């Protein structure tokens, strides 16, 4: 959709409407966006010979929320005194106006026979209310409305894209936002089946990890998408999983010999680990029980694998057999893994509202070595960061190292920065440090000053300063991503975000010995740029140095690319 961009770009949704009366079969895709500030939509369906573009749908009601099915259409008219009116029209029967109870209509669709309209309606006390009540309304042409509450923790908003679709004249599927996190808005749906009678759904599947629910023409199956990547076919009668339509990469890490270790989502919440080379399917590691992996790390000698999931971290051997499993605290939403040496595993845990927690284990014995908040292993020592509030406002931080007995080896002076950015080298013999340096004459903006230090002595080499691409964006910054085995090259990414909206602007590469930035191909900079936000499962690129240190493995969603460094 060239030129159709607003609020994080065009939105693609699975749908059930057939603009040609049902002659085309296959998943139907509805697209919404903007062109020069004007709402724009189109649609296409997938066929064996490619996509067939069907053009604008419900064009006469383009500026209003609309729904279409089998020759019937419904338009949501502007509300009067807080109550929306649904205008139902079609090839048979007169135009009918139906007034709903108070609230905002989020999605709507007429029944296949045109006798009823289904709507999802939210009732908010303010512009955005996390616990706003969501209702499923089923209205007849004569104005009778049956309302049932859709239970769950939703955080419903227009950009949550809730969905209601008729299976047949007597049953409906809803896909509604659901989140169990106290810190994040919903990024997926739970799917429910409803009939024309009764107060509750017949069944509910998903806990926010599915998206959309499109019934098959015969009403026996429906299509949904798991975690924004894997289409799944399920039964309408009970919601049971039938089969996946592909797999998705949920985590990746370079593997020795020019390969990559991938964590795959194979559908129905199942997963596997696989080692692949460019252009090959690769080989599977281990057995079942490797679902939901969100992060991977490999020890420097390739003997151990660490896999992070929402509630645990597992240590596996080179063949993928689980050796140890470590439980994580509640409400951890991000886990970063890394090895310090051949057997020491470190995990940084983020749970919202804090500076992160640390865990260090011995991969051989499974023994917990440390759980200090601001400490991480580097060789046989511990890097420690301290943060304090200044009397006049603001904060300061400093970095230090302690030995195996907890004695301070060295400690730097306090710096006027809120938090230190650092990464140890794979062998633990060097640390790359990032410090914010205010830009003279530019308020609230800083360069990132990078330098290398010896963790044994604290001695630092001269560094270099990197600047973001646009100083006008106060949320834009640089973050350390990986440190090469040569202890010379540092990989970073540039991004912007303000809590619910975010942008990725590409990768950056620094040479600490030459004290200069290395120019990367446009495919790794502007070619990776994208916008994302709450409720939109847009892939966020990741990258890492290969174990040999001669190249990069870049993953963008399910796409893997190997790049050789000159």
From TrEMBL:
Domain of life: Bacteria
InterPro entries hit by this protein: WD40/YVTN_repeat-like_dom_sf
Record-linked Gene3D superfamilies: YVTN repeat-like/Quinoprotein amine dehydrogenase
The name this protein goes by in its record: WD40 repeat domain-containing protein
Species this protein is from: Deinococcus rhizophilus
Source species taxonomy: Bacteria, Thermotogati, Deinococcota, Deinococci, Deinococcales
């Amino acid at each position: 959709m060239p030129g159709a961009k607003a609020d994080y770009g065009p939105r693609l949704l699975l749908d059930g409407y057939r603009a040609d009366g049902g002659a085309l079969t296959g998943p139907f895709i509805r697209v919404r966006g903007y062109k020069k500030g004007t709402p724009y939509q189109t649609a296409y369906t997938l066929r064996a010979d490619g996509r067939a573009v069907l053009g604008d749908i419900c064009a006469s009601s383009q500026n209003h929320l609309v729904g279409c099915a089998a020759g019937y259409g419904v338009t949501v008219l502007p509300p009067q005194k807080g109550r929306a009116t649904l205008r139902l029209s079609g090839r048979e029967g007169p135009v009918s106006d139906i007034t709903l109870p108070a609230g905002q209509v989020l999605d709507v669709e007429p029944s296949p026979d045109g006798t009823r309209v289904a709507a999802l309606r939210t009732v908010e006390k303010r512009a955005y209310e996390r616990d706003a009540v969501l209702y499923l309304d089923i209205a007849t042409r004569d104005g009778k409305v049956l309302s049932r509450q859709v239970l769950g923790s939703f955080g419903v908003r227009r950009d949550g894209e809730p969905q209601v679709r008729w299976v047949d004249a007597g049953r409906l599927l809803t896909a509604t936002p659901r989140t169990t996190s106290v810190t994040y808005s919903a990024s997926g749906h739970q799917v429910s089946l409803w009939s024309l009678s009764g107060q509750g759904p017949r069944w509910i599947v998903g806990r926010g990890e599915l998206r959309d629910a499109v019934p098959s023409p015969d009403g026996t199956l429906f299509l949904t998408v798991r975690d924004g990547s894997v289409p799944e076919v399920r039964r309408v009668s009970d919601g049971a999983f039938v089969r996946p339509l592909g797999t998705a990469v949920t985590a990746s890490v370079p593997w020795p010999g020019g390969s990559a270790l991938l964590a795959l989502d194979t559908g129905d919440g199942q997963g596997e680990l696989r080692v692949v080379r460019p252009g090959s399917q690769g080989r599977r590691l281990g057995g079942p029980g490797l679902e939901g992996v969100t992060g991977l790390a490999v020890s420097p000698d390739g003997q151990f694998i660490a896999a992070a999931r929402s509630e645990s971290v597992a240590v596996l051997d080179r063949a993928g057999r689980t050796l140890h499993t470590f439980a994580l605290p509640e409400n951890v939403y991000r886990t970063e893994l890394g090895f310090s040496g051949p057997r020491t595993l470190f995990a940084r845990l983020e749970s919202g509202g804090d500076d992160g927690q640390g865990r260090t284990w011995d991969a051989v014995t499974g023994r917990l070595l440390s759980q200090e908040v601001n400490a991480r292993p580097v060789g046989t020592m511990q890097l420690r960061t301290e943060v304090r509030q200044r009397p006049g406002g603001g904060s300061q931080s400093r970095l230090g190292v302690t030995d195996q007995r907890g004695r301070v080896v060295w400690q730097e002076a306090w710096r006027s920065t809120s938090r230190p950015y650092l990464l140890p080298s794979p062998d633990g013999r060097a640390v790359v440090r990032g410090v914010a340096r205010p830009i003279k004459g530019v308020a609230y903006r800083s360069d990132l000053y990078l330098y290398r230090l010896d963790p044994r002595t604290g001695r630092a080499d001269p560094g270099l300063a990197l600047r973001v691409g646009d100083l006008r964006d106060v949320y834009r910054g640089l973050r350390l991503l990986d440190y090469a085995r040569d202890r010379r090259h540092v990989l970073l990414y540039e991004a912007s975000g303000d809590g619910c909206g975010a942008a990725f602007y590409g990768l950056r590469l620094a040479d600490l010995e030459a004290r200069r930035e290395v120019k990367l191909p446009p495919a790794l900079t502007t070619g990776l740029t994208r916008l994302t936000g709450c409720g939109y499962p847009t892939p966020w690129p990741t990258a890492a140095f290969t174990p040999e240190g001669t190249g990069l493995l870049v993953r963008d969603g399910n796409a893997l690319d190997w790049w050789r460094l000159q």
